[in-house]
Amino acid sequence: MNRNPHLDALDVVHPADLDRAAAEDAGLAAALEAVRGDDDLSTLFAERTRFDEHVSRLATDVPAPPADLRDRILSALEAEPPVKRAAPPAVREVTRRGLLRGLAATVGLGAAAALGIWASQRPQTGRPTLLDLRTAATARFDELNTLPPFEGDRRPPLPHGWRGGMIRVARTTRGLALEAGGPQVASVHGFRVVHRGRTVRGVLLALPTESLADPPSQRFFDPGSADYTGPFDSVAWTEGNTTYVCLVHDGDLNAVEAALNDVVPV
Q1: Taking the CA atoms of the chain, what radius of gyration do you get in angstroms?
Q2: Residue 125: predicted pLDDT
Q3: Is the pLDDT of residue 40 over 60?
Q4: Residues with Cβ < 8 Å from 158, sequence gap 6 or more?
Q5: Cross-strand partners of 249
Q6: pLDDT for 102
Q7: How much is the pLDDT for 86?
């Protein structure tokens, strides 16, 4: 991506707080001066500022609901006839997607169950796909940090830029086994980054590329290649012999990108 570092630095600060933040941070002050001294950058920054202000107005200028809205909703619900649901069939066809959604529920059942997250419920033929991994991870996103510590023989390394930078990775590395009764192969890293005055939390999965049936061809963290699964955004990429999947809540990828670009969030 062709990005300007000065605009990136200013982008992590809300327009209303820009002057105060620049007075407290020499780096931001230098970026602001550089942008204001360049006609093209100044025009682009003004457009971004107007967009941010427009979004802020949309989020705050919301008319109050009618006073009787609650009573109207309750009355409408009471007037609705009960819905009769068909009983589930005694035997359902087993699919990989369904199995993975079911096995994701085992994450919160304790260490013994979590160690076999892919285990017996995953089809025995073939390796899991990237979609399998994303589906299982997003199904129980919050419970990923409760998995047992990693005890495998070879822990996948952290990707470039994720150690010692603005991203704070949890000290405890969690482990995931991809085969029934097999060793932990994938590592799970909780992380956080402060962005625009709030803390963004996410999970990074790392596993040997050979463990996936269809590893991503992307070679670096790029929000432009993100997958949007329900309330989560995820980016997958491969470095060397390791594949990574970064999962955050919807809209939080820009905070991770800013941290990887060595922008100091305010």
Answers
A1: 23
A2: 45
A3: yes
A4: 169, 189, 204, 206
A5: 232
A6: 36
A7: 61
Three-class DSSP category at 196 = coil
- For the stretch 182-216, pLDDT in tens is 678 889 999 998 877 778 899 999 999 998 989 99
| Secondary structure (DSSP) of 78-89 | HHSPPPPPPPPP
The full set of domain ranges for the chain reads: 5-60, 96-260
Ramachandran angles phi, psi of 202, nearest 5°: -155, -175
8 Å CB contact between 202 and 191: yes
pTM over 0.90: no
- Tens of pLDDT, residue by residue over 82-94, are 666 665 554 433 3
Cβ–Cβ < 8 Å for 203, 141: yes
- In this prediction, residue 114 carries a pLDDT of 40
Q: How far apart are CA 137 and CA 11, in angstroms?
A: 30
Between the two ends of the chain, the Cα-to-Cα distance in Å is 23
Q: For position 59, what pLDDT does the model report? A: 63
DSSP bridge pairs for 174: 149, 188
Q: Quote the distance between the C-alpha of residue 100 and its chain's center.
A: 19
Distance from C-alpha of 41 to C-alpha of 56, rounded to nearest angstrom: 22
**Residues facing 239 on adjacent strands:** 242
Q: Kindly report the three-state secondary structure assignment for every residue of 9-23.
A: HHHCCCHHHHHHHHH
**Nearest residue to 41 via CA among 18, 68, 82, 11:** 11
Q: What is the H or E stretch that residue 69 is in? A: helix 69-79
Look at residues 260, 191, 257, 262 and name the one whose alpha carbon lies nearest to residue 224. 257
The angle that helices 39-60 and 26-36 make with each other, rounded to 10 degrees, is 110
Q: Which residue has the tokens 């970064």?
A: 246
Provide the pLDDT confidence category of residue 41 given band limits of 50, 70 and 90: confident
